[in-house]
Amino acid sequence: MPRRTATLLTSALLLITMFCVGALINVPYAEMSPGPTVNTLGEHDGDPVLNVKDKPGRDGRPEEYDTSGHLNMTTVRVTGAEYRMTLFGALSGWVRHDSLVVPHETLYPDDKSAKEVDQENAEEFTASQESAKAAALKELNVPVSTHVLVGSVEKGAPAHKRLHAGDVITAVDGTPVGRPESVGKLVTQHKPGEKVTFTVIPAAKAKAAQKKGKKPSSKDAEKITVGTKKAADDGRAVVGIQPAVGHTFPFDVDIKLADIGGPSAGLMFALGIVDKLTPTDLTGGKFVAGTGTIDDTGKVGEIGGIQMKSVGARNKGAEYFLTPAGNCATAAKDKPDGLTLVKTSTMDDALSSLKKIRSGKTDELTQCKAH
Fold first, then answer.
1. Which pTM does this prediction carry?
2. Nearest CA to 209 among 200, 201, 217, 218?
């Protein structure tokens, strides 16, 4: 066999072998890519994403104003917990603009099952909706009352199956509580192994009252005794719950969006609510998308997957993207063409930017810059 032919044949065999190896060998990585983006002012699967109920207007009907344009929340699509990426798939993802390859444990920590991760994402999504409602209504000077509730329960902890996420905590050992940190202080007065008595209003009854714009009723409260265990870090007594702040709104704002997890849609939900409850058309018909967590005070927090979210927003048609200040530098390093990244630290920042966008003063926007 001529040397040249043998060399070409050997090279071809090596290439085929490398391709097969790359297609068969699994690597500990997962992939993130642009997910669905949904207009909070519109409908999803035939239902309004935001629906204001029982807010009396001048004619006795819910007071809700017409809107235009887009205020799109954005998502990231990730490979499942059981998916095993091949070396070839990882290499392909690393060179693509619309994909991000990350260590598998970043999305699915080794100490948590896929079900636990999904549950955490669902709880964060629910909490983000409540914070969005609170931030929006406070922006509109609508009174919002607060209470302490069970934010989450640690699996296998003394409180597991005794207390549940959403239960309203009114007292610990008979002492009324008005702030989440008060719960921990009262529990840690015990020694590990001792019991704590919680006075709680079950989540179902609390939600039923809130749907009617009423505070959870003390007549629905019940006492539940829970054991304690020693905390791994400092030996203090704990029951295995994370207290959180709950809200009672004077009317119901229903957010309907299935199969979405995590807290990153908070900002866009809050803006959508404000838009629907004010005569001012916040977007002026423009296509604005964005992301960011939000707390009760309107502070916007950074999120994960910012590059994939900006790509997804631009692919959908967005011209402007409200970007958490903490994500600005990363987002600006790989900005999609035609998309303006608007630096956003607070709810007021976002509303100010929207005013500039609808009035055509876009040269005054504070844009994200890569450091």
1. 0.80
2. 217
